[in-house]
From TrEMBL:
Protein known as: Amine oxidase domain-containing protein
One Pfam family hit: NAD_binding_8
Classification lineage: Eukaryota, Fungi, Dikarya, Ascomycota, Pezizomycotina
InterPro entries according to UniProt: FAD/NAD-bd_sf
Native source species: Penicillium egyptiacum
Length: 439
C-alpha cells in the first residue's frame, strides 16, 4: 500500500503579498518554511458533535489527524452556561441524547457520567401567545399519535408525499421544539426528519444527558485530550485539491454546515457548486437569562391563539433579543409577578440550522445528488445535513468511517491542501497549508 502523507505548513513568516496570493487558491507549498510543516493523515473541518466524534475515533485507531475549529471550544451546538458565583451549569443548546449504545460509548470514552432525563425536568408548560400577548388558559397542545410513528416506519416517506395524519399528530409535529421558523413553510420531510423515531423514543423517557447537568463535559475532555491536534479559533482561507498527485481518494472531512459561504475556499467544481449552492439554513437562537421574575418550574411556551394548528408567531431576526425581554416583562405583569429587568447572561446564534435545499430541488433528486458527492474530489461530508440529532449524527459518522476505513485499505490518496488562519482582528495572523499527497 502506498504511504499517505499530509503536511501542515506554517506561513506565519511569509510576506503579506504571498499571504494574499494564498487566498486566491494559488499557494505553493514549497514556499513555506519546512520547520512549520506538520504531517497528518486526515483533516477535519469543524469541531462540533460530528467533528469531535470523528477526531476521537481517529485517535483510537492511531491515525494522525488535525481538527480545525473556528471557535475557541469544541461541541458546536452544545452550549453550557456556568454560573460564575454558584458554579451551577445549564445546557441551553443540545439538551438530551438517546439512551443507546453509541451515546453510552461516547460518554464512557470521555469518563463523563450519564443520567436519565425526565421530560418533566423541562417544567410544567403554560401556554401564551407571545405576539398577541394573551394567556391561552384552555389550550391543550396536540401530541404525536401512533399514526405518525406508522408514517415514519413507512420510510422512505418521500415516495408518498400524502400524509393524512390525525390533527393531534399534525399539531404535535408542527410544534416540535427544534423546528425553527414557520413550520407551515417547512417540508414534511424536514418535520419527519426532526420528529423521527429516535426523538419520539426520547420523549417517551429514553433520554439521557450529562449527569453533571453539563453536556459540554465530553467536549471539554476531548479538547484536553486532543489539544495538540486541534486548531481552535482557526478557519480556512484557501484550499486546493489534487495538488501534486493523480486523483484518488483522500480525506478532507467537512464536519460543519457545507453552505456555499463556508465552502468557497475549496475551489468548488461545477457539480459541487450546483449542489451546495442550493443549501440554506434557518435562523435559530438560544440564551440564558437571569432576573426574569418568573416562577421556577414553569415552561412558558409560545403558541398561536388563532393561527392554523396554533403555530406560534416569531419575531424577526433583528428583534429576537428585545422581543424576549419585552415578552418576559409582559409575563411578569400578566402573572402579577414583581417587575424586574431581565438580563441575558449568555446568548448564542445557532444559525444556520436545519439545512435544506428548496422543495423543488428535493423533488429533483437533490439528496441523491448530495449522496453522490460523498468522496467526490476527495471530500467527505459528515455534518448534520441528512440527520439532525447528535445520536443520529454519531451513528451516521460511525457508518461513514466504516466505509472510509474500507476505502483506506483499498485506495491511495491524491494531494490536497488548505490554508487556515486565526480570524481577525489579530495583529499576527499565522496561516497554515495542509498538503496531502502520496509519498
Ligand atoms: C439549540 C439546539 C438544540 C439542540 N438540541 C439537541 C438535543 O437536545 N439533542 C440532539 O440530539 N440534538 C440536538 N440538536 C441538534 C444538534 O445540534 C446536532 O445533532 C449536532 O450538534 C450536529 O453536530 P455537527 O457537528 O454537525 O454541527 P455543530 O454542532 O453545529 O458543529 C459544527 C462545528 O463547526 C464549526 N465551524 C463552523 N464553521 C466553521 C469553519 N468555517 N471552520 C471551522 N469550523 C467551523 C462550528 O463552530 C461548530 O463547532 C440541537 C441543535 C440546536 C441548534
Amino acid at each position: 500500500m502506498q504511504k499517505r502523507n499530509v503536511q501542515f505548513i506554517s506561513t506565519a513568516k511569509l510576506p503579506c503579498s504571498l499571504q494574499t496570493l494564498q487566498t486566491r487558491d494559488q499557494f505553493d507549498s514549497s514556499a513555506y518554511a519546512a520547520k512549520n510543516i506538520i504531517k497528518r493523515d486526515f483533516a477535519i473541518i469543524g469541531g462540533g458533535a460530528v467533528g469531535t466524534y470523528a477526531a476521537i475515533s481517529l485517535a483510537d485507531q492511531n491515525k494522525t489527524f488535525t481538527l480545525v475549529e473556528v471557535t475557541d471550544q469544541l461541541g458546536g451546538h452544545t452550549k453550557t452556561f456556568q454560573d460564575p458565583t454558584t458554579g451551577a451549569t445549564v445546557d441551553y443548546g443540545v439538551q438530551l441524547h438517546l439512551n443507546c449504545s453509541i451515546v453510552r460509548d461516547v460518554f464512557a470514552r470521555s469518563r463523563s457520567p450519564l443520567a436519565a432525563l425526565e421530560p418533566s425536568s423541562y417544567g410544567n408548560p403554560e401556554y401564551y401567545d407571545f405576539t398577541k400577548q394573551v394567556a391561552l388558559t384552555n389550550y391543550k397542545p396536540g401530541s404525536i399519535q401512533s399514526d405518525c410513528a406508522t408514517a415514519l416506519n413507512n420510510y422512505p416517506y418521500l415516495e408518498d408525499l400524502k400524509h393524512n395524519l390525525s390533527s393531534g399528530s399534525t399539531q404535535g409535529g408542527l410544534s416540535w421544539p427544534a423546528t425553527p421558523g414557520n413550520p407551515l413553510d417547512t417540508t414534511a420531510l424536514a418535520i419527519f426528519n426532526d420528529g423521527n423515531n429516535v426523538e419520539l423514543e426520547d420523549f417517551e423517557g429514553a433520554a439521557v444527558h450529562g449527569a453533571n447537568n453539563d453536556n459540554s463535559e465530553i467536549y471539554v475532555n476531548a479538547l484536553a485530550e486532543l489539544k495538540s491536534n486541534v486548531f481552535p479559533q482557526f478557519s480556512i482561507i484557501a484550499a486546493k485539491r489534487a495538488l501534486t498527485c493523480k486523483s484518488g481518494v483522500q480525506l478532507l472531512i467537512i464536519a460543519r454546515p457545507p453552505i456555499l459561504d463556508d465552502t468557497k475556499y475549496f475551489g468548488l467544481d461545477q457539480q459541487e457548486h450546483a449542489i451546495l449552492s442550493k443549501l440554506s439554513g434557518k435562523n435559530y437562537y438560544g440564551g440564558v437569562m437571569n432576573n426574569t421574575g418568573l416562577e421556577e418550574g414553569i415552561a412558558y411556551t409560545n403558541a398561536g391563539a388563532d393561527t392554523q394548528y396554533h403555530v406560534a408567531s416569531l419575531p424577526s431576526v433583528a428583534e429576537v433579543e428585545d422581543a424576549t425581554r419585552s415578552t418576559i416583562k409582559w409575563l411578569q405583569t400578566e402573572n402579577n409577578f414583581t417587575a424586574l429587568e431581565p438580563n441575558f447572561v449568555d446568548y448564542q446564534d445557532f444559525s444556520p440550522f436545519h439545512l435544506s435545499p428548496p422543495t423543488e430541488d428535493i423533488a429533483d433528486g437533490w439528496y441523491g445528488k448530495m449522496k453522490d458527492l460523498q468522496g467526490h474530489r476527495d471530500t467527505w461530508y459528515i455534518s448534520s445535513l441528512l440527520v439532525i440529532g447528535s445520536t443520529q449524527v454519531w451513528n451516521s459518522t460511525h457508518t461513514c468511517f466504516r466505509i472510509l476505513s474500507a476505502l483506506l485499505s483499498l485506495s491511495a490518496f491524491a494531494g490536497w491542501a488548505i490554508d487556515i488562519q486565526k480570524p481577525l482582528p489579530r495583529r499576527v495572523v499565522p496561516v497554515y497549508v495542509l498538503h496531502s499527497c502520496i509519498a
